[in-house]
Amino acid sequence: MHRFVLVSSLCLASLACSHLSQSESDLRREYLSITEPGIDISTAVSLIKSKIHPEGELIVRNSTPCLERESPDRQKGSASIRVNLGWYYWGVARTNTYGEWCFNDAGRLIDIIVYRSFDERPSTAP
Q: Residue ranges per domain, the chain?
């Protein structure tokens, strides 16, 4: 009971007790275990909605690679799904978390990129 009270107090103090506050690489690994490489776009959409439960918008972009605003050498795939996964508070700052599911020319998942709104620098490290 004492540990529960301590953990609860720490969560309330930091206001960052959302699963989205995990590291970008941990979230990426978690989402890759749900939407495994090789699945098609429609299967990915279904799994994202039913197993990941994003709190925000999900956009299928059939002719847009992941990281389309980056230089061409940083872009991935030829199609993507961009998802607003939700938000959490880190101290007093609201932090939005996004995911991009990247697909090759055959429409098969090749990677997932997770990033946050406060830095907008995606992490692709495993």
A: 18-116
